[in-house]
Amino acid sequence: MAGKNHPHAGGLVHDHTRHTTRFTVIGNHLAQHASLSGLAIGLGVCIQSLPSGARVDIKTLAARFPEGTTRIAAALRELETHGYLRRERQRTPTGRIVTRTISCNQPGSSRAEDHPTPARKKRTPAPRKPLPAVPKPAYPAPPLLQTATDLLAGLRHHDPRLLLSERDTAHLAPGVAAWLERDVTPTAVRHTLTTDLPTERLCRPAALLAHRLTTQLPPPPPFRAPAPPSPVRHPLQTCEACDRAFRSPAPGHCRDCRSELLEAA
Length: 265
What we know:
CATH class of the domain at 28-114: Mainly Alpha
Order of helices and strands: HHHHEEHHHHHEEH
Oligomer: single chain
CATH architecture of the domain at 28-114: Orthogonal Bundle
Structural class: mainly alpha
């Protein structure tokens, strides 16, 4: 019967034996934590029971428990969020970087406050270094710039590493137009930009192309005087007086017959 000194019917009954060896004191704040998952509570209990120096990395714990590395990692993050774990990166005397895991059996205690978990610094994106300047064409006609843009957009078909952004293409197009303006064929420009590239990864392909367009710019073509106009060659006509063939823009008389007509007049 349930009474003052008896548990309620159907409730939990403890059958305890007092431990004298090989036991760990675990706080109810961990064992009965309202926010931690069962896996996180179990890992927290296991880690607090291990001796100092034991390996508690994700792979070691995943080899010990049936849960995979993904669930183990998530549970460790839960414990870290609630203050039961701290992970610090340290450099050994040999220069190697290792991660030390610190187990806290009482989050928020004075000892834990003496060694707060260092806040992770937010990585701010580094400012983008501007591309080197490129040559400019003397007459940047729209068709010339469009040809240069199409040439740059097609470089990725020759080397996938030369896939350029729209902004980089717009920056490089005047440089390519300056080459085309100097009587260099698109094939020759393409060959200059894609030949003898480094074998390793290209960190900034647009900067490499800008350097080549500038340092290898050919000189302007030599000056050529305009060719004189070709002489006018009239069609053959038949003289109306002597049937002689002569060249003239219109039918009529040949030179001799014109002279005789002038003398007779």
